[in-house]
Design brief:
alpha/beta, globular, 15% strand, seven-stranded parallel sheet, 2 domains, 13 strands, Rossmann fold
């Protein structure tokens, strides 16, 4: 049995937060003593001990920096076999990188003309914390969720390749299953106003510009796939602006905001699109594959590394290439769609969540033995 400490400011949410919750609960089920240190214990994790880290709640910069230093100090009061940081904390045994480096994110946004220099104090603080956590004193090993992330960490911060392990995420093959299409899909399609004979393209994620959802809106503005409704699902600080833009496009686009029923959305979808400018992995890619739904994504999405065989044809090299994006969507929505869907399910079946959990458990045990 290992005594494991996991640090992350938030528990509620998708992406990294969902990965943390599943990993913590999974390790606890396997008999390990798992503790999660977070600023707000806003989730229930069976068998896991939650520790609330006091932080300064005077704006996002204060929340970021106060947790970054308070969490490791609180963890250091006890003995652990392995300490894992899921966010930006300056000291841990393992840095689990599930979102890519902030340095590369900023570079992608600048290249797309979506961010100007100079940086404000919040982004400068994130970069400073990244430098600390990827310095030799900030970690012993790095756990990357894709080869893309491994390469970003090595390139941006000079971490030697032998200290970085790549372990792809897994997927719940029961929650996301093609059989759910008949049971869950019709109600969601009705709710979104998708008529019979109309296709549904779903894009799910938080932070619309990083996810490339503005590019999808641009495609629907200029050359939308015929008879296809676009649903943008997730949170963004400019959600109201996206809804106004969708309203100007008529009934062809729906912006729903965050939703927890991802399996129902995928059951309703004819295609899922993940045209990210930067994406460490992209769990929704695997979830759509498990649901038997074709996925159009960009080469900048970590999960694209897994899309082989016929699925590779739906990977767009540059998400800013709207012609290429439109062509990939047309192919996914065309006669080959069922073939893509079956290939997607076969791919997902190679990556079950339990196998991912076992690989992470083995990796953490190796790190613990090195102490």
């Amino acid at each position: 049995m290992m005594r494991v400490a996991l640090m992350h400011r938030r528990l509620a949410g998708g992406g990294t937060e969902a990965d943390l919750r599943r990993l913590a609960a999974g390790l606890a089920r396997r008999g390990h003593d798992v503790h999660v240190f977070c600023a707000r214990a806003d989730a229930v994790l069976p068998g896991v001990t939650l520790h609330r880290v006091p932080i300064v709640r005077a704006g996002r910069l204060a929340r970021l920096v106060s947790f970054a230093f308070a969490a490791p100090r609180l963890v250091a009061r006890e003995r652990w076999d392995v300490v894992v940081g899921f966010g930006r904390t300056p000291r841990q045994d393992v840095v689990r990188v599930g979102g890519g480096t902030h340095r590369t994110y900023l570079a992608r946004m600048r290249a797309a003309g979506l961010r100007r220099a100079p940086l404000g104090p919040y982004h400068r603080a994130i970069l400073w914390l990244e430098r600390r956590q990827f310095s030799p004193g900030g970690h012993r090993r790095v756990l990357a969720v894709s080869a893309r992330v491994r390469d970003e960490v090595a390139r941006d911060y000079g971490v030697p390749g032998e200290r970085i392990a790549v372990i792809y995420n897994g997927v719940d093959l029961e929650r996301f299953h093609p059989a759910e299409r008949a049971a869950l899909g019709p109600l969601v399609r009705h709710e979104l106003g998708v008529d019979d004979g109309t296709r549904l393209c779903v894009a799910i994620g938080t932070g619309f510009r990083r996810k490339g959802f503005d590019l999808l809106l641009g495609l629907w503005r200029t050359a939308p796939p015929p008879h296809t409704v676009l649903a943008l699902v997730g949170g963004d600080e400019r959600l109201g602006a996206y809804r106004r833009e969708a309203a100007r496009l008529g009934g062809g686009v729906a912006v729903t905001g965050p939703r927890a029923d991802v399996e129902a959305l995928l059951a309703a979808a004819d295609v899922v699109c993940v045209p990210s400018r930067q994406e460490a992995f992209g769990n929704v890619v695997l979830e759509a594959c498990a649901a038997g739904v074709p996925v159009v994504t960009s080469r900048r999405t970590g999960a694209a590394e897994l899309l082989d065989g016929p699925l590779a044809a739906l990977v767009v090299e540059d998400p800013e290439d709207l012609d290429g994006l439109g062509a990939a969507l047309a192919r996914a929505l065309g006669p080959e769609g069922p073939t893509f869907g079956r290939a997607a399910r076969r791919l997902a079946e190679r990556l079950p969540w339990d196998a991912h959990l076992e690989r992470v458990e083995t990796f953490l045990a190796e790190v613990a033995r090195e102490r």
